[in-house]
Amino acid sequence: MAIKALLKERFQLTDPDISRYIETAIECEDFDSFDHFYNELGPIFESLEQQQKKPPEEIVSSAKSLWTKSRELQRTALNGTSPDALVVQDDDEGSGDDTTISKSFKGNLDLRPQRLIQPITIATEFEKSTLKDTSSIFLNSQVDKTMRVDRKRLEKAEAKLKSKQERREAIAAGLQLAGPKKTYEPVSASTTQQVSKRDVKNETTKVRDIKLENFDISFGDRVLLYGADMTLVYGRRYGLCGRNGYGKSTLLRMISTRQLIIPKNITILHVEQEVAGDDTTVIDSLLQTDEIRYKLIVRERELSAQKGEMNEKDLKELADVHAKLQELEADSEPARASGILYGLGFTQAMQQRPTKEYSGGWRMRIALARALFAQPDLLLLDEPTNMLDFKANLWLRDYLTTKWESTLLVVSHDREFLNSVPTDILHLHSQRLDAYKGNYELFMRTKAEKIRNQIKEYEAQQQLRQHTQDFIDRFRFNAKRAALVQSKIKMLEKLPVIKAVEKETPVVFRFPDPSAISGTLFQLDDVSFRYTPDGPLILKNVNISASLESRICIVGDNGSGKTTLLKIITGENEPTSGEKRGKSSAIIGYFSQHHVDQLPMDMNPVQCLARRFPGKSLEVYRSSLGKFGITGDLALQSIETLSGGQKSRVAFASMIMTNPHMLILDEPTNHLDVESIEALADALIKFKGAVVLVSHDEQFIKSVCQELWYVDSGCVTCLKEGFDEYVKLVKDALEKMH
After folding, report:
1. Contact 85/76 with Cβ under 8 angstroms?
2. Beta strand extents in 115-233 (DSSP E only)
3. Which of 72, 73, 147, 360 has the most CB atoms around its CB within 10 Å?
4. Comparing C-alpha atoms, which of 583, 574, 570 is closest to residue 539?
């Protein structure tokens, strides 16, 4: 009543609605200062006083009087000194029924905060309750079920946390390293997919486009893709890009195994595993992929072997076989198969050798050649350039861009390959797939522009939201602007939600600085090498050297002796003749292209380093792994479950544990994604020691290396014009092949 009287006295307020609004605001809001009070109610006071043409100073003075009076009434009510303050008035006028607190009760009432004698267990009290309102919608069974703790899940979560803690403690104490090896259950990928009637219909037609809609892929308990869509138009070439561990290889496997449903009329080949070695010659291994032709040739040989014993029926069958072979143009197939093999580095003599005589890298080339020869509707390639030298790489680029007619989906880290081959780029990130037209360079420009536009759009909407919210907060209690405030609130509710741009964490690698050392790290004088006393010379009369500032790349065809040269530098191979000199105190870090395969798959990265370099603290192992992005739980995850790029990072971390003066890297970019290759190049440029590497990645070589050593026919030549001179030599060799 006091507030109402003051409003009537100071502001001549007679409107009961506005009076009730102000009273309610004062009663419900906890104003901590006069500024807060005036910001909320000032606009109403100003509109009332302006009607009476009073100066602003008098408006503020009247508002301050109201603020002071409201504070006094609040203090009086809390202290319990005024019986009138504890009277609750009935809203219905004329009822005359006031509820008051008796004087005897008022005298015993203490409204100050009190400490409970004993704690109250709310759950226990709730169970004892016999109130009839337990059937209320606020206490219904659905809410009760949601709030109830699932004991089994809780126990499982606690057991998992306990196991993780014990594992970490065991690693720190070195206990796991002495025990028996633990066998890990293989983690498998799974998928779900929405299939439309159109997809089923396409199976009975000759449509060779592929449209996958609303599919999910997970690996163990980790979601790789969620609600993704992918369209592969027949005849187009798609490059699949994304960070290591994001699920590129898993997606290819889901397609090739048809766990993602694809029309049965579409043939698919996935070059993933090497060809099994047996007595079949390399050329026949390709020809056998054309099953119809191969069966006809086998039957022709069987019939021709009968010679004079053929009857009329056999003669007719032989004539039919010849007709079908002619229709298939079977005579041209051996030449086509031979051309593919030759482009991938197989000479005529090599094509006639059994597949069992070749190493895993060469058998992977045979698998690639078989896929190219078979010409499936959809060819899936996962890092095809890993097993190729630069000459074969250039040939494959040319073949896929000029002669490949069906659909191609390829994963590659080679930027030049991605700029040459794909017509489209599929970018896998944030559990989704985004499609871009054009090659990798155009994709990077378009993606950067898209991100800039998204940031601008997001920031503009955030400003609009903030400005609108400020208006709503300012005039929330202004009766004259109530309608406008409501329209602003509705506008905010209808605004589309623009998510903040998800920026990928930059990839950073770091090599530790070596200790001080001066002079030449190694020098080879007239060095020659052969594996056996009567074997051929692999290297002859090699004269090379390197200092702490050297940045050297060794290039050449596969089998030319590049890896052999690296092993001589590391000391793994001793020269057959000539002299090798160097600093005995120089420490060498060696990354072999086979180191990734030699990691202990049943251990995690921390355990791997602890086994190879025992006696160091957990922080040292963690620090080394952290320099290559193996952090957090990833460092405690079994190596078996890591992607190829993540395994390479573990191998890098192992290599730097000795703080080397010189890094010798054999194909270090294999398995790494584009961002990781760029991070590796940047780290090698900043490294204060020597770098000697073997690579066929053009961008990587140009970024890092200052010298280029070309190995050919056992000789090592320094190319003064660098990589451009090497490209010219390779292209000249390819033209001679044609």
Report:
1. yes
2. 189-194, 210-219, 222-232
3. 73
4. 574
**Is the pLDDT at 613 greater than 60, yes or no?**
yes
Count of Cβ atoms closer than 10 Å to residue 49 Cβ: 20
What are the distances in angstroms from CA 571 to CA 384, 458, 600, 613?
31, 58, 24, 21
Nearest to 565 by CA among 536, 595, 593, 528: 528
- Report which of 424, 409, 433, 439 is spatially closest to residue 266, judged by C-alpha positions: 409
- Which CATH superfamily includes the segment(s) 193-277+358-438? P-loop containing nucleotide triphosphate hydrolases (3.40.50.300)
CATH ID of 520-736, from 3.40.50.300, 3.90.550.10, 1.10.1040.10, 1.10.260.40:
3.40.50.300
The structure tokens 């508002």 sit at 63
- pLDDT score at 319: 80
Tens-digit pLDDT profile for residues 236-246: 999 999 998 88
Q: Is 600 exposed, middle or buried (0-12, 13-18, 19+ CB in 10 A)?
A: middle
* pLDDT at residue 128 in the model: 47
Whole-angstrom distance, CA of residue 589 vs CA of residue 351: 38
**What's the CA gap between 432 and 195, in Å, rounded?**
18
The domain locations on the chain are 1-70, 193-277+358-438, 452-494, 520-736
Distance CA 713, CA 131 (A): 96
Token couple for 330: 């079977």
The reply to whether domains 193-277+358-438 and 520-736 share a CATH topology is yes
pLDDT, tens digit, for every residue of 186-223?
Answer: 556 666 676 665 655 555 567 889 999 999 999 878 89
Say whether pTM exceeds 0.90: no
Residue identified by tokens 């950067």 is 448
pLDDT at 543: 94
